[in-house]
Amino acid sequence: MTSSAAAPASLRRIAFATIIGTTIEWYDFFIYATTAGLVFAQLFFQPAGKEIALLLSFATVGISFLFRPLGAFLAGHFGDIIGRKAMLVATLVLMGAATTLIGVLPTYAQIGILAPVLLLLLRILQGLSAGGEWGGAVLMAVEHAPADRRGRAGSWPQLGVPLGFLLASGVTALMTGVISPGAAYLEWGWRVPFLLSAVLIVIGFVIRRSVSESPVFEEIAKRGKQARLPIVTLFKRYWHLVILAALVFVGNGTLGYMTTGGFLNNYAINVQSIDTTAVLVAAVFAATVWFFSTLIAGYLADVIGRRHTFLIGFGIQALVVFPVFWLVDEGGLPGLYLALLLISTGLGLTYGPLAAWYSEIFPASVRFSGVSITYAIGAVLGGAFAPMIAQMLLGATGTTAAVSGYLLLATLLGAGATLCLRDRSGIPLGPDHEAEQATGATIFASRTPVAQLAETK
């Protein structure tokens, strides 16, 4: 951090801008995943047959994740060179344009094979945008914050993810249950949530343009300390941090995309025959729980540390991965609500502290590249194909036990990586402290005397 944190009024403005902008960005991303499990198999992949069409639909959700690292590379490179703010605005506009175009896309019945091809291309653009969005948002929040409030500040952009999921699920539930129920939703109602993005992007653009640049980057730029090739430096010196921190997110993302990726929704609707709108309303409930558990986790991260908060969250996840499917199988809609409550509580505790911890792991000159690329790689390894893998496991074994085993493995992997990283709460984030930032992030490396002294205070 620079010598002084932003004023309270500025912090409130930054909090509002990061939450609103990230909510809009992730609404766009999740509205696709929500719709993929409901209509894309029928409208864009129908000739493949019901089962294969559903797998292809979930595959398009996952394929976009493969392009998130590219988006992270581009945004990270330019974010470390020209600033965080410019990348925030650019990624927001790209996501909104791709989402709006999906809303006017012709179906397979209208233009044949070109329809799924165009759908996939637009989903790839969403992936590029999502890959660059997160790093800029979290650094704007964390680098403006006082050292003892970084966990809370880092949870602000994290809140945009459950809020985006809540908004996507809520709008879809409104379309399926009130405005365009039944055949009308399949005919035209599914398009409305995508077209709504055009309005939301204008709002987000205006808000994000109003915030000031990160003080850390301003100091880097003033001193001319931008890395010429930040990505090369990142992988040459800090590749081990990228791998470990990405695995931490794998533990969260794999379970998270059971809900946000549409698998659990599809399972409840098509296997357990629960009403579509009722399931979507339950998803709104899940997003609400996820929101509050993420918010609480941000506060906990400042009180008991990032690492301890993560380990509590992973412990909860490990305990619930088997019961959640039993609850849906035996309890119907009430069981689904309880399952989502359990999932969302663990998810929030392993998501709220992520922004602050990632920001404190990487040195200032490569921080945008580090947090963006790490998050994107974690998303690919964890969430990208989780719905498709779960669907394949269910189809191959006929039981959700295999799916639960897969989720438990990912959770234990995330917990193991968490144990390999040190908590760096309060470490200075500015360019004058690069030497301290560059050492001691893992349990395998020695810490600088400055870092050891800070931990004893």
UniProtKB/TrEMBL annotation:
The chain crosses the membrane at residues 52-74, 86-102, 159-182, 188-207, 238-258, 278-301, 308-328, 334-358, 370-394, 400-421. Its main location: membrane. It comes from the Bacteria. Residues 14-426 form the Major facilitator superfamily (MFS) profile domain. Keywords: Cell membrane, Membrane, Transmembrane, Transmembrane helix, Transport. It holds the Pfam family MFS_1. InterPro entries: MFS, MFS_dom, MFS_trans_sf, Sugar_transporter_CS. GO terms for molecular function: transmembrane transporter activity. It is found in: Cell membrane. This is MFS transporter. It is a multi-pass membrane protein. PROSITE patterns: MFS, SUGAR_TRANSPORT_1. One of its GO terms (cellular component) is plasma membrane.
